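Re: your question about LLM class flavin-dependent oxidoreductase

S., sorry for the slow reply, the queue was backed up all week. Below is exactly what I fed in.
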Amino acid sequence: MNSGIEIGLYTLADLGPDPHTGQTISAKQRVKEIVEAAKLADEAGLDVFGVGEHHRLDYAVSAPPVILAAIAQVTERIKLTSTTTVLSTVDPVRLFEDFATLDLISEGRAEIIAGRGAFVESFPLFGYDLNDYDALFSEHLNLFLKLNQNKKITWDGHFRPSLRNAEIAPRPVQREIPIWVGVGGTLESAARAGSLGVGMAIAMLGGDPLRFMPLVEAYRQSGLKAGHKPENLKVGVTGHGYIAKTTQQAKDEFYPYYSNYWSYVNRQRGMSSYKITRADFEHMTDPGTALFVGSPQQIVEKILHQHEIFGHKRFIAQIDIGGLPFRKVAEGIELLAAEVAPIVRKETSK
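Result:
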């Protein structure tokens, strides 16, 4: 068992064109590469691998537990999580059954990071009203926590049919399926995660890490106020990353893919597809920012600097965005596992 913070990877399975070739790989190829990336991460000794959920043709994964079950068959140790499950638009009973099944298949490695998602396609797709965005999330999260604790449940809510002495099967290998709440920037979300005693995963996609400190404070304060033990209030940091032998090489190689990624993601979300300039990118990757782009040493320094601020228990990076070819993803996995993780674990276990 590794001491120090957990280090891992996650993917949202975006299907973007390679900016150098203009070619976009198929969903079939993308899924194959995600499973292979998880296998490499497991073999290299990383701790966590996450798969996100989208419901649109420019992403390859709409069913994280299915992909994670496939990954479970080719891995032995790595924890398997959703990043994130769009909790507002999934039935909590179905979600629990899917991840309890994954837990059985993986022999106790299943986890969930639940969020509200940056995209809203799942609301009309599954018959939910976008006006109920927050209320759905709250009710579904509370029901999931009850399902986690009870083999049989009687429950009444607003958005799904009542449950009367319902049997919730199968039961996972773990006593409960670990659940974290993904938080982007709202203090209310952070405080709710703390009061419920679930983990909080911060989506830290850039800027000064210190701006996220109020989230961590709100999370811990509400958690302690609700009677949860400090050691059970776990914070995770998630963010975009790219590692190469030198920081200059990392920036030179990653810039076209990073700029490409934000161009099509902003377009998908109905926003201006403004192209990030190289000067903007240089500023975004400064040593004091939360964008994890650089040499192994620079990545180590960023993670340790943030650990001093947040005292977080987990760091997971998204290193496969913008049409990046798989060979570059594989190189990043190797560098993260061999040259970043050992130093970070050693320093954070003191």
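Residues 100 and 172 are 4 Å apart (CA to CA). The first helix runs from residue 27 to 43.

Happy to talk it through on Thursday.
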